[in-house]
Design goal:
mainly alpha, 6 helices, flat
């Protein structure tokens, strides 16, 4: 996470879902916020946790593993759609999974040279934790990739049904990302 407080905020939203709420509010401030249809992904995680009989920490942990796995699957699936040779599929998958942001040269006070990843504060660019990133962002990225694959298939097959499905998945991905 970019900030420790985010983790506890998401856990509080999941807790509200466990309590059966779909309209969520922030319980991490003394100010009163009316419950609203926001962060619904976490409400759904709460409902799932209640059904499975697990707590908010366990469902959050599992959601990161599951959505990270879905994203890895989508990356490899897309590489297989774009490339035909196994060597190209493996290379494309490797680069998509392990590539990072830009590296910039640095020098400290002792004039020692080094490199630093640009935007290190943005965990989505960190290759080590990319697949355990925020679960709603992972799911949104997965849905975005699948919608692109469906749209490409729809255009190739001239199928309006696949085109509509691609649009629905893209809209859902956008909703999950921000909601």
């Amino acid at each position: 996470h970019n900030h420790t407080g985010e983790y506890f905020y998401y856990l509080s939203l999941i807790r509200q879902g466990i309590e059966g709420n779909i309209l969520l509010t922030s319980r991490m401030t003394p100010e009163h916020f009316s419950p609203a249809l926001a962060q619904t992904f976490f409400a759904v995680l709460g409902w799932t946790a209640k059904i499975l009989g697990i707590d908010n920490i366990a469902i959050y942990f599992l959601s990161r593993i599951i959505t990270g796995g879905l994203l890895l699957f989508a990356i490899i699936f897309l590489a297989r759609k774009v490339f035909k040779q196994n060597k190209s599929i493996i290379l494309a998958s490797f680069l998509a999974i392990f590539s990072t942001g830009f590296w910039i040269p640095t020098a400290d006070k002792a004039k020692a040279l080094g490199v630093l990843q640009y935007l290190t504060h943005w965990t989505k660019l960190d290759t080590i934790i990319r697949t355990t990133y925020l679960p709603h962002h992972l799911l949104s990225t997965f849905l975005g990739i699948i919608s692109i694959i469906l749209l490409s298939s729809a255009l190739k097959a001239k199928s309006w049904q696949k085109g509509i499905a691609a649009g629905i998945l893209a809209a859902l991905g956008g909703f999950v990302y921000f909601a």
